[in-house]
Amino acid sequence: MNILRLMTGAILAGALMSSCTSNCNGGKCEKENAKCCEKKCENGANSTIETIKTRRSCRVFNADSMPSKEVLSQIAEAGTWAPTGMGTQNPIILVVTKKEMRDRIMKMNAKVMGKEDMDPFYGAPCMMIVLSKKEGTTVYDGTCVMTTLMLAAKSLGVESCWIHRAKEEFESEEGKAILKDLGIEGEYEGIGHVALGYAKSEIPAPAPRKADYIHWIE
Ligand SMILES: Cc1cc2nc3c(=O)[nH]c(=O)nc-3n(C[C@H](O)[C@H](O)[C@H](O)COP(=O)(O)O)c2cc1C
């Protein structure tokens, strides 16, 4: 059953990748032919913008369907390319696939929320936790990483949801002990968790964008 789910995930990721490909010639793009580097989907849409627009928060994960280590590595690595203020690379990413730790974090999160009988991670089998060094643009840097992780996941057919309360978790003695056990030293602020996995059921359609979102100053 697990293998079947993994295969379904891989096929979905493959389908997404193949329907949106880069027209860029080996990544070598000069100013004058920048248009050739636009990554297009089969329907002609820009594939990066399509990923941004189709990413949705998943709240019903298939607990038995873990994305492969290869896919998770690609997502995490993409996160490291997020912009950071002054290029400080303040954030760090914890990739949690160990069920024991996933459940421990889940319980800590539920406690912060005051709802200890629920799973705030919606059954997601794994998560990435973003923490950011308490220096300079800490929260902004971490937020950029969070967004990059969610978009990278979507581009690989993996669903995600930002789960909050990492700040409180890692301010607690238990949170500090987890970092210490990992050998992570220094002052870090918890920014958020990206719950990751494959959807168990259809994800609801997004709310329409508000009319006054964009203000042009021309
Ligand atoms: C800072 C932040 C915190 C969030 N915290 C949670 C959370 O704890 N639990 C949750 O289910 N969704 C959380 N979300 C997801 C939002 O609820 C979601 O992005 C929003 O409803 C819009 O839906 P969409 O992501 O499908 O576009 C959070 C999002 C952000 C940006």
Structure description:
- By secondary structure, the protein is an alpha+beta fold.
- It has helices at residues 2-19, 47-54, 69-79, 99-113, 138-155, 166-171, 173-181; strands at 20-22, 39-41, 91-96, 126-133, 159-163, 188-197.
- It has a domain at 58-197: NADH Oxidase (3-Layer(aba) Sandwich), CATH 3.40.109.
- The chain contains seven helices and six strands, in the order H-E-E-H-H-E-H-E-H-E-H-H-E.
- The chain is globular and about 50 Å long.
- The model is unreliable at 1-18 and 23-27 (pLDDT under 50).
- Flavin mononucleotide (FMN) binds next to strand 5.
- Flavin mononucleotide binds next to strand 5.
The ligands bound in this entry are: flavin mononucleotide
CATH first level of the domain at 58-197? Alpha Beta
Termini Cα gap? 57 Å
Major sheet: size, sense and barrel closure?
A: 4 strands, antiparallel
Structural class estimated from helices and strands = alpha+beta
CATH architecture of the domain at 58-197: 3-Layer(aba) Sandwich
Query: What's the helix count?
Result: 7
Task: Offer a concise description of the structure.
This protein is α+β, with helices and mostly antiparallel strands and 218 residues long. It has helices spanning 2-19, 47-54, 69-79, 99-113, 138-155, 166-171, 173-181; strands spanning 20-22, 39-41, 91-96, 126-133, 159-163, 188-197. The chain has seven helices and six strands; from the N terminus they run αββααβαβαβααβ.
